[in-house]
């Protein structure tokens, strides 16, 4: 540097490696909110590419001959349900009995739904163990689904009794309340039941599943957890990935279904590939609010419990 040269120094601060700006922070918050908005893009991809894969590696393997069929617990339009036990003596007393369902239709769908529920919201539904294809022919595929035996009494069975709701009081509350029979005592019992039902539905809806056939016959009392749980997911739709959802088609029980009959707008297109459907699921969920379909059914059940009336059982349409 020669004599007389002038040195100019910048008064600006030295740039740092990363700078968080207000627009950048806002964009990050919006992105995170979208990824975790119902039914959950981030949880969906984690379930799809990791949890489901790991579960397949460790799930048990059964076939029909591994079980001895016992009492028939029920029969519907899509299958027959039995109480069952293992052919071989279990190595642990914890094995206990099972519920085995032969599904003549929608078997693959119900296996998918139960596996999704087991990974995402196990407390909402009966404890699912395994589902397998026993045989396939021109007449159709024969699927068998296996659950832990938790009891066989449904909310419908309790509601048919003249003693309802007092006949479930000790089962869900653990004791008889120190109150005379009347509205105040019934209010506590029915509120407890509804709280359990809404908790179970919220578990399904938070992961993108709409039951579509929510009724007393599909609500079983778990003797172990002393709570009511949801069963029969054959009519359910997984709106996170688009499984069992076909526009302008519906599966429902007209006695408990919402008047519109559809869980999504009839203008909604068929579901794209699972990754694309998962990425777009929060948009469709907020546009259609399909969870309200099940909430309508829950509201009818609530009214029936208060009015001490229940619709007779019929086959699902």
UniProtKB/TrEMBL annotation:
This is Protein kinase domain-containing protein. It comes from Salix viminalis. Residues 67-317 form the Protein kinase domain. Belongs to the protein kinase superfamily. Coiled coil: none annotated. ATP binds at residue 101. Pfam families: Pkinase. The keyword Kinase applies. The keyword Nucleotide-binding applies. Keywords: ATP-binding, Kinase, Nucleotide-binding, Serine/threonine-protein kinase, Transferase. GO terms for molecular function: ATP binding; protein serine/threonine kinase activity.
């Amino acid at each position: 540097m020669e004599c007389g040269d002038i040195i100019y120094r910048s008064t600006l601060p030295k740039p740092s490696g990363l700078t968080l700006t207000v627009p950048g922070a806002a964009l990050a918050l919006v992105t995170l909110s979208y990824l975790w908005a119902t039914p959950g893009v981030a949880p969906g991809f984690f379930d799809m590419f990791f949890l489901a894969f790991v579960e397949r590696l460790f799930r048990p393997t059964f076939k029909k001959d591994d079980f001895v069929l016992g009492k028939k617990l029920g029969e519907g339009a899509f299958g027959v349900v039995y109480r069952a036990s293992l052919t071989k003596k279990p190595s642990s007393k914890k094995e206990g009995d099972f519920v085995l369902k032969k599904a003549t239709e929608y078997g693959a769908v119900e296996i998918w739904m139960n596996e999704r529920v087991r990974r995402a919201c196990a407390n909402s539904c009966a404890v699912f163990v395994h589902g397998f294809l026993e045989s396939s022919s021109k007449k159709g595929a024969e699927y068998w689904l296996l659950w832990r035996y938790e009891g066989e009494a449904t909310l419908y069975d309790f509601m048919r009794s003249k003693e309802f709701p007092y006949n479930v009081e000790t089962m869900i509350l653990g004791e008889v309340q120190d109150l005379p029979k009347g509205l105040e005592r019934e209010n506590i019992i029915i509120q407890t039941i509804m709280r359990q039902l809404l908790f179970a539905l919220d578990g399904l809806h938070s992961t993108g599943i709409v039951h579509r056939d929510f009724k007393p016959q599909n609500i079983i009392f778990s003797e172990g957890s002393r709570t009511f749980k949801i069963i029969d997911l054959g009519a359910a739709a997984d709106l996170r990935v688009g499984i069992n959802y076909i526009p302008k088609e519906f599966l429902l029980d007209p006695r408990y279904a919402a008047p519109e009959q559809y869980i999504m707008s009839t203008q909604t297109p068929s579901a794209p590939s699972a990754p694309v459907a998962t990425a777009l699921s929060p948009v469709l969920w907020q546009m259609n609010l399909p969870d309200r379909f099940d909430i309508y059914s829950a509201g009818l059940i609530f009214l029936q419990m208060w009015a001490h009336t229940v619709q007779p059982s019929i086959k699902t349409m």
